[in-house]
Amino acid sequence: MSEQYENRPEERETADVAPAAPAATPDRRPRVATVVWGLVVLAVALGLMALGNGLVFDVQLAVILLVAGAGVALLVGSLVGARRRAG
Questions:
Q1: Which candidate in 29, 55, 59, 61 could, as Cys together with 50 as Cys, close a disulfide (CB 3.0–4.6 Å)?
Q2: Are 55 and 17 in contact (CB under 8 A)?
Q3: Does a structural domain hold residue 22?
Q4: Residues 6+ apart with CB under 8 A from 57
Q5: Residue 57 included in any domain
Q6: Structure pTM?
Q7: Domain assignment present for 21
Q8: Cα–Cα distance between 58 and 82 in angstroms, integer?
Q9: Which residue range(s) make up the domain with 44?
């Protein structure tokens, strides 16, 4: 009974199996959204550091400009990416 469960390499059947096809290489470029939001976080951090060091500027206007710029960058980046994939 224990013979059924023994591991005998000499009795195993080996099949000729073709090697697997290489996987498609993933796109290694960073996504536009990742870069844009990273820049937004960096800009907020720099603005907070500037405020902490005594620089005076209109925070509301800076946030409006930052969000508008991020939106434009996201739109342009997605359009450029779509054009690149299509063409």
A1: 55
A2: no
A3: no
A4: 47, 50, 51
A5: yes
A6: 0.65
A7: no
A8: 36
A9: 30-87
